[in-house]
Amino acid sequence: MADPCVHGSRGDCAISVRRGGLSVLGEGVRKAVPGARVIMLAVDEGVRTRWAPAAHASLEAAGLRVHVVPLQADENEKSIAAVERVWAAMLQAGMQRGDALVALGGGIAGDLAGFAAATFLRGIPLVMAPTTLLAMVDASIGGKTAVNLPLPKGGLGKNLAGAFHAPSWVLCDVDTLATLSDRDFRCGLAECVKHALIADPAMLRWMRGTCASILAREPVALEELVRRSVAIKAAVVSRDEFECGERAHLNLGHTFGHALESVLHDRLRHGEAVAIGLVAAVAASRAAGWWPDADPAEVAAALAQVGLPTKVPTSVDRATLNVAMGFDKKGSGGRRRLVLLRGPGQPAVLDDATDAIVDAGWSAVGA
Ligand code: GLY
Q1: Residues 237-248: what's their mean pLDDT?
Q2: What does the alpha-carbon distance between residue 119 and residue 18 come to, in Å, rounded to a whole number?
Q3: 165: closest CA among 121, 216, 215, 204?
Q4: Second-level CATH architecture of 5-180
């Protein structure tokens, strides 16, 4: 399978998926951003000792002048203050509009560094070198960059300030997945299952058959997993870069999932909440009459096989979840939108989800 590519309004963005990719980072940046002389390597603290030296060496070997700015992979640090630190480092390095920022790390680092690149000098080239499965198959693809903002009543509003800023190149070095924790790795698998459900039922069968190799993080299996998953997202984003329509299908399971994540933030990570949300969405698809043969238990089995949760882990009041979903009577503003499935690989948006449909989703996951 060839490397996927996003065809965007500002040109194509190749997504290279390979082992040992960081050793060719410099060469690839030279090709993707021919005008760059200075590189700001924005490094997620979580991978600084293990992966930054290889990235740094490769960029320098390609004749690029490299500066490094560290980033904390923490939602509280995904802030304008952190972006200011990246801007200051880029000013200090004397970077010009043709120079580039390379983001090395997970989704938080990529979103934050991407936003700094989108706004510095009104936008400089960005290269993504994701090191988590979630960042490879989702966050790095499609040009969404953002930071969180403090909400007036307290707490954090996720991704409330951001910009679309398509990367010039994405390099997924699957070797970097070897150092990911099991929990983080499984969270990325939830997005792979989501991609399979919305566009490639054969991929779900392949994942089930290859599960042992995937969980053992065998490089050949990882390359195929990332390439297939990225190809699905790249195709969707190429057809709807700015989320005017079809891109919303990537939110399958996320409306249920986000509600769980916000109510049970101390218990569930994003990918785990999405996994439960996918089971709920399949059950809701059946309740809506869109996919009468839908079998939530089958999807749950696929998710459980890779160690993801498929039931709400503790008792939660359904009304609380509906409020978190924005589906309560007062707060919904009349819109109760859900991405559901009309069949395997056939996502669509339901604009007026009834209580019965939403309840069927929650019942399937024990809420
Ligand atoms: N993660 C969903 C999107 O990129 O649109």
Answers
A1: 97
A2: 30
A3: 121
A4: 3-Layer(aba) Sandwich (3.40)
pLDDT tier at 2, thresholds 50, 70, 90: confident
Domain-wise residue ranges, the chain: 5-180, 185-218+243-364
CATH architecture of 185-218+243-364: Up-down Bundle (1.20)
Check: CB of residue 28 under 8 Å from CB of residue 171. Answer: yes
Quick one: what percent of the chain has pLDDT higher than 90?
94
The answer to whether the beta carbons of residues 145 and 124 sit under 8 Å apart is no
Global confidence as pTM: 0.95
Residue 236 CA, closest ligand 1 atom number = 5
Beta carbon of 144 within 6 Å of any ligand 1 atom: yes
Pocket lining: 138 vs ligand 1, CB cutoff 6 Å: yes
Which of the listed residues 195, 241, 251 should we mutate to test ligand 1's pocket, taking the one with most ligand atoms within 8 A of CB? 251
Phi-psi region of 314 (alpha: psi -120 to 50; beta: other; left: phi over 0): beta
- Report the nearest-CA residue for atom 3 of ligand 1: 250
Q: Decide if pLDDT at 72 tops 60.
A: yes
Going from the Cα of 191 to the center of ligand 1, the distance in angstroms, rounded, reads 10
Give per-residue pLDDT as tens, 140-186.
999 999 999 999 988 889 999 999 999 999 999 999 999 999 999 99
